[in-house]
Amino acid sequence: MAENKNDFTQGSIVSKLLKFMIPILGALILQAMYGAVDILVVGRFGTTAGISGVSTGSGIVNLITFTITGLTMGVTVVMGQYIGEKKPEKVGQVVGGAICLFLAMSFIIAIAMLIFARPLALLMQAPEEALDLTVLYVRICGGGIFFIIAYNVISSIFRGIGDSNMPLVFVGIACVVNIVGDLLFIAVFKWNVAGAALATVMAQAVSVILSIIIIRKRELPFEMKKEYIRFNPEIRRFVRVGIPIAFQEVMTQLSFLALCAFINRLGLDASSGYGIANKIVNFIMLVPGALMQSMASFVAQNVGAGQEVRARKSMVTGMFIGGSIGIFIAILSFLRGDLLATIFSNDEAVIACAADYLKGFAPEAVVTAILFSFIGYYNGHSKTLFVMLQGIAQTFIVRLPMSYFMSIQLDASLTMIGLAAPCATIFRIVINLIYFIVVSRENKYRSTSYK
Description:
Order of helices and strands: HHHHHHHHHHHHHHHHH
Number of helices: 17
Shape: globular
Helix content: over 70%
Strand content: under 5%
Number of strands: 0
């Protein structure tokens, strides 16, 4: 029964895609609540400078987190392909290699974040009032980066075997711990930004420890031996798939960091307003993000099983589901961005800045659902190099130039800066559509030739 549930090569596409996607969406919602709760509690019980510090600092931490998430997507894809090919004996070797690689990376990244926290904050043009707070946030999160990385690796393993429920349980535990920690450290102890960072690290640590306990008591659909935990040849395969995804995430997060730096130049209110808007944006992007992760696993199994038609149908299904939900979210963001921002702050100037940015960003809720369905489809095919190249093009041809140009105008508008995101996404959809049509025609021609 459990095996059939996690087998995406048969049955209703809509039903199986939704059943797999909903727990992923739930996990992403809870994950987004980390930063949202940090900003909310700091906004209510801390300072405006604290909001800016958490916003800028979390942007730097997200650069690391999303890069690792992109790299672990390679683990998910390769595991899915092996399962689709009915080669469970290879899965354990992939997991063992992943444990070794990411453990080594966590030590290197932790040292780098502790040493380079201040230069990074200065590069981000953090407002003077929030500079030391930004550095503090980055250093505390850097000290606990092992737990942040470990959570992402564990989640990727479960998604790879078609189980999206366990990552939801893990992040649910972490979310509860983070909320309690924020209220205790910020509202009671008045530790401001330091409290937000400590609560985040503590939450991830508890989640990882409990997840390991749960895994040890659970029967997995693959064999795991101690000798698999080494630097083995499978690392090369999932890294080859994951590096382009990770590099794309680096480019995406760098564009967010650059955007944050552009807006930081406009003053503390704009910086804090963007920080709040960015937390709302994290929620806006949840459905597309869940689609992309689900699509990669769904398509990978069907590719491994040789069912290309079913893989394409799942992509179109994802676009329809995500786009339909995105229309509602876009309208809400455009019309009532101020209402959403009041959840995080009472400062009218900060609320106004957040609402202005959301007006421009709102269409992204629809177009990204289409784009991320494309990306999940190509990731499932291991065409991650193409995904990386289009991501670079989107960032450096459209998003960053448009954002920078809008930010240096005498009457710089956060609405116009926010509009750079959907414009860049539409540009990327066109690239994907052209590529899809060209490849489809080539495959059709080859099939005809063989006949």
